[in-house]
Amino acid sequence: MKTILGLDLGTNSIGWALIEIEHEKKLLKIIGLGSRIIPMDGQEFSKFNAGQKITSAAGNRTTLHRARITKERYLLRRDRLHLVLNLLEALPEHYKIEIDFERNSKKCGQFKKETEPKIAYLPTKNSENKYAFYFEKAFEEMIRDLQKVNPHIKNEKGKRVPKDWTIYFLRQKALKEKISLEELAWVLLSYNQKRGAELDEIENDNEKSDEFKEPLDLKVLSAERKMDKDGTYFEIVLNDAENFTYKEYTTLQLTFKDDIKEVLKISKLDEAGNIIEEKSTYKISDLYILTLSKIDHAETEDKKFKHIYNFIYTNGWKSEKKKEKWNKSYNDLSKKLEEQTKEENLKVISNLFVVSNNYNHNGIPEKIIPNIKAPDFNSEGSKDWTLLKKKTEKDAIKFNIDNGYVDKETGHVKHYISPKIYDVLKDDAKTGEQTKIIGGLFQTIDRKFYRDELLQIINTQKQFHLTLEDQSVIEKCVKLLYPHNEDHAKALLENKNAIAHLLAEDILLYQRPLKSKKSEIADCKYEIDYWKEDVDTTTGEVTEKPTYKKAAPASHPLFQEFRIWDKIHNIKLIQLEAKDSEGKSETNVDITSQYFNPEHYQALFEHFNNRSTVGIDSFLEFCKKQFGLDVGKKGDRKIMWNYPEEEEFKGNETRKSFENRFKICGFKDFDSFMTQKKEIDLWHYLYSVNHNERKKVSETKDINNSKFGKTSIQNFFIKYFKDKKVEADVFEKLCKDFENYPKFPSKYASYSAKSLQKLLSVMRVGDNFLTVGEFDERWQGKYLNRAKAIIEKEDQID
Questions:
Q1: Percentage helix, strand, coil, to 5, in the chain?
Q2: What are the backbone angles phi and psi of residue 329, rounded to the nearest 5°?
Q3: How far is Cα of residue 317 from the mean position of the Cα atoms in its chain?
Q4: How far is CA 242 from the centre of its chain?
Q5: CA dist 336 to 299, 351, 423, 475, Å?
Q6: Burial status of residue 195 (CB atoms within 10 A of its CB: 0-12, 13-18, 19 or more)
Q7: What pLDDT, in 10s, does the model give residues 538-563?
Q8: How far apart are CA 558 and CA 568, in angstroms?
Q9: Which of 358, 726, 754, 713 is nearest to 551 (CA)?
Q10: Which residue from 525, 538, 693, 767 has the fewest beta carbons nearer than 10 Å?
Q11: What is the pTM of this model?
């Protein structure tokens, strides 16, 4: 008898059959058979053939669901905006009549069925041009403005100006001058389409305990051409505290004065948390448009990558790509470059690249030729998006500074984006190019640029349109949008700038807060929050069931201390080879009790408490200093602990993070100042208030009763340092650093904060803490009296 499994492997299905054959009796028996169909579309097939990861069915559903939710919220914002603009009498008639404004209708504020009018285009009876541009007057005004840079802009062939440019002309005009209410309605509706990205939380990149990463945006003070043995370079000076200077090796100048550089400063720290300047490194990244001049091809004996292509750029840089097979597209591109060189054709092949390099504290680059790669804007979570976003924002800020968009009172630069966009369109009008704005030049930008611009437009237009300040109209808007939310409606009406807050914060820029997942946090098994009735579904019996408090976050200072004491009480000092009283050899002898007393345990706690992590080397170094033990070296240990040699234990990560930031900002008295109460206060503020709320300005009064604006983090630190004199520059650095403090990890302990306090009271040992013996003496009598009272109460109940 023989059993055979047959498989039919197809591109999107698998067939199987299990058969049994008896050759002697010539019998064939089918034990089982079946098939598994794998549905795949054309896109998945192409990904599969290219060796790429195929998204799961659940992942595809999530992507489609996210798109539907995004569209739904976009439409909801537009409908709410329609309702307000209608009450402000700002909607054009041809647009207004296509919207349902019946208050009892479920589609109030939505377009009527099978209609979707365009606010900027008016339907006509003309068969050739079915739509006429509604804001023709603003368009003509823009043309007159563009003729200042190109007098023939309207007539010259190839210089036709699209009507849609008018929206950017109106947006930058509305910042300072009057526009009509209908034009304002068009402007406001445009902010619903592109409103920027808002960061929910800041990621923590400081993974190592002995280093501190500091992201900086530094301005270029000068860029001077020089030469040394390695070739031509530009000496670039940045405007940080030390005027950091570095070398950028290139034959063509790519960095110019007043450029903004993305710098990641990585500071090495000693055990005390002090910066080791000579070990500090700088990673500088930027986006450059590089022109390709030549492609060299070579073959190797490497079995995996047989072909190497060297891409050489006009500034002397080059990048390498390894391929398993000969690449036809690279070969065609190489021939094209050679033909251009022969024909002296001015057409060049240029692309955007991410260029990064590491520099030591003296500005010497790690590599003469930096890392060059094409940016990845397709994959979700790509850091190239972040770099592009920051570069776009820096260009906009630089433009605003150069063109006087600065607050006269504070000197702070305005975060506007439309003036920069309109300036690009002016260049297009001059050169005849067509720059892609949405999804092109400004693919991603922070929402604060749109927020500042939108609020300024509304506040400027309030000066020219009394409707925007009519309290009766504002009351109608609030009651229409919030018929049941009385508290929010009351707060809005009490706001002096109610219409700006309503349009900007409540409608156009509103972002739903993330849902709380507190229910998923484990309960503390000791602290009871309250008792609730529990009904047995079978018997109907009613009993009281306790509901426990939620566990504290793992980043809470009390849990950080609890974790250290828990580890210290379990740690053992093991001597690998020893002799007993009779002179016999023993191995792995526990000698903890011979050396550790309460004072030593407290010293070990301080050792853990002042570090993020503690490994065996750090622990044995402590034992060597405290007890004078010969611990040996790695590979020849004489003393060990009762854990694997490679294991590392966590210290007080929260305190160490605070210490690093305080010391880097120049605060010198951290150890004496940062008590556990101070540590908890700072942790509680950072845990409860996100980075956007920390930057919000609130009105405060000084000693002379004069009003001035302070951010939330500034107000907190003013109270925090009320008993400590802090230098002004140190205070400013602390506020700036902690306003961008990253979110604590979403990890939780097994106990609540109150339970941790009680547990710590019996875990702490040493002169500064309550020892176990003292605990028994002081509290034993109290617990006996309490037990006696409980017994007496039970007797009375019986």
A1: 40, 25, 35
A2: -65, -40
A3: 32
A4: 28
A5: 21, 16, 35, 67
A6: buried
A7: 887 888 888 899 999 999 999 999 99
A8: 15
A9: 754
A10: 538
A11: 0.74
